[in-house]
């Protein structure tokens, strides 16, 4: 290898070496001349008792020593300059990571090394905070996704997702209470629909009247998010409003097709008067717009499903009207079933299910031939096979509609019996749901008290006696409740 190449490799190796190694090499280079000179003086004294050196040689030695020290000073100084430059570059980088106050505090160090050490400590602390924030964000995202998954698997309507939206916004923006207000058709007042962060009874309708020029009216008319004061609502006669709206309030309109249908609000905790940032306003407004679309789609789906339910109900009534002997059977069964359900203390959701299931329970008879359905005499075995298909036919009609799927159990199983002798699935005992048991008793009672071509109608007491004789088939506790209800109705009638 040529000397120039070796020289270049040595310089490159020296340039890439660590600061400690460079310092060690330079220190040895600057120290070698004085050490050699001292060793020479030492040997001269040992051998001759004095230093034997000419003035010229002494001058050369001193020049070399000063030159070595000067070279060492220059090179070591260059290393320190690099450290100072690194410190300055570090300070500039810190301005993008830390607050100006923190950077100023770090730069008040005793020297550059102290500043650099403190800077690295501050950066490390900031990185640790970022890691913790990322972990928290990860946990939050996981929790949100779990709630979304739970909502998808359990949602019967859009309300589950509206609650999830409000909860997520409240936690993300460190708010206290979030509300969803829907505008009425006359555009004169807002109704509280969904609340997160405060106790609220959805059964109690809470409204806010709109006045021209009021903050909420401006949000609706201008169709832009605003950070407003909630104090204008604090003087309301309704104390619940004081819990729902804080002093600092973010209001975002629900805009769909350039039409505002409501407002989404976020309130800060009490005593926190810090305004929401523009980024907060934009984020909430975007989410409010998506919420408006979801609500409109939900309304459209409800309208379609309502129309479908009304059409199916009309078909069921048409089947009911085909037979003069059973005309009005569906409405009477629904009335008896609701009477039993109310006396048992069922909630409104179960009562609605019971009513709708009673009105549709014989829907499948639309698929039964008239010669079987209207036959005046008893059915043959072959005809009974055909007749017993009507629960399955009825279920197949309503099952494709998501909003009617909760009625499938009532429509399919209203002819099941506790001992397993019913149809179409031969369910036994606890396999038959409480609502189906209620519907079965109401259905049999109305059939017994209605005149048929092959037998006269039974009196109330005769029908009850027959029901009591069916201990292996129907729930006798429900029979007792039916009798109590009938007797109470008679006493008030």
CATH superfamily annotation of the largest domain: Hypothetical protein af1432
Strand order of the largest sheet: 3-2-1-6-5-4
What CATH calls the topology of the largest domain is Hypothetical protein af1432
Strand content: 5-15%
Return residue spans where pLDDT drops below 50 for at least 5 consecutive residues: 151-156
In DSSP terms (H or I, runs of 4 or more residues), the helix count works out at 18
Q: Note the overall shape.
A: elongated
Q: In the CATH hierarchy, what is the class of the largest domain? A: Mainly Alpha
Percent helix range: 55-70%
Q: How do the strands and helices of this protein lay out in sequence?
A:
Blueprint (H helix, E strand, L loop, with lengths): L2 H14 L2 H30 L6 H43 L2 H7 L5 H43 L4 H14 L4 E7 L5 E8 L10 E3 L5 H8 L3 E4 L9 H6 L3 E9 L2 E9 L10 H45 L6 H15 L4 H13 L9 H4 L7 H7 L2 H9 L9 H6 L20 H15 L11 H10 L6 H17 L1
Antiparallel strand pairs: 1-2, 1-6, 2-3, 4-5, 5-6
């Amino acid at each position: 290898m040529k000397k120039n190449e070796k020289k270049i490799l040595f310089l490159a190796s020296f340039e890439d070496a660590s600061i400690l190694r460079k310092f060690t090499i330079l220190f040895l280079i600057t120290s070698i001349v004085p050490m050699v000179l001292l060793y020479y003086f030492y040997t001269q004294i040992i051998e001759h008792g004095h230093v034997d050196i000419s003035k010229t040689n002494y001058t050369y030695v001193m020049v070399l020593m000063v030159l070595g020290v000067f070279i060492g000073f220059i090179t070591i100084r260059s290393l320190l300059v690099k450290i100072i430059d690194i410190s300055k570059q570090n300070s500039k980088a810190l301005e993008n990571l830390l607050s100006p106050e923190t950077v100023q505090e770090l730069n008040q160090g005793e020297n550059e090394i102290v500043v650099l050490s403190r800077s690295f400590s501050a950066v490390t602390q900031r990185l640790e905070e970022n890691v913790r924030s990322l972990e928290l964000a990860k946990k939050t995202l996981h929790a949100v996704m779990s709630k979304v998954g739970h909502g998808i698997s359990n949602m019967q309507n859009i309300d589950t997702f509206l609650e999830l939206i409000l909860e997520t916004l409240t936690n993300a923006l460190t708010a206290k209470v979030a509300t969803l207000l829907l505008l009425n058709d006359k555009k004169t007042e807002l109704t509280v629909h969904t609340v997160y962060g405060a106790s609220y009874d959805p059964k109690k309708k809470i409204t806010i009247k709109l006045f021209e020029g009021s903050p909420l009216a401006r949000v609706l008319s201008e169709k832009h998010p605003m950070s407003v004061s909630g104090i204008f609502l604090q003087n309301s006669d309704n104390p619940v409003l004081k819990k729902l709206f804080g002093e600092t309030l973010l209001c975002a309109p629900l805009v769909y097709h350039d039409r505002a249908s409501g407002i989404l609000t976020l309130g800060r905790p009490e005593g926190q008067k810090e305004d929401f940032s523009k980024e907060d306003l934009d984020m909430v407004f975007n989410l409010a717009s998506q919420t408006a679309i979801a609500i409109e789609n939900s309304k459209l789906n409800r309208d379609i499903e309502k129309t479908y339910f009304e059409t199916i109900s009309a078909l069921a009534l048409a089947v009911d009207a085909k037979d003069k002997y059973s005309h009005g059977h569906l409405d009477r069964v629904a009335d008896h079933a609701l009477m039993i359900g109310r006396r048992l203390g069922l909630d409104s959701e179960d009562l609605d299910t019971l009513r709708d299931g009673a009105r549709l329970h014989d829907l499948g008879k639309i698929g039964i031939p008239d010669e079987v359905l209207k036959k005046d005499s008893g059915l043959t075995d072959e005809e009974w096979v055909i007749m017993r298909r009507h629960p399955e036919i009825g279920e197949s009609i309503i099952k494709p509609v998501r909003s009617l799927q909760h009625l499938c159990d009532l429509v399919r199983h209203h002819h099941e019996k506790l001992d397993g002798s019913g149809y179409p699935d031969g369910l036994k005992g606890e396999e038959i749901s409480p609502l189906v048991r209620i519907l079965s008793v109401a259905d049999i009672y109305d059939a017994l008290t209605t005149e048929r071509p092959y037998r006269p109608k039974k009196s109330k007491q005769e029908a009850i006696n027959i029901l009591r004789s069916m201990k292996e088939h129907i729930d006798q506790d429900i029979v007792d409740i039916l009798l109590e209800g009938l007797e109470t109705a008679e006493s008030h009638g």
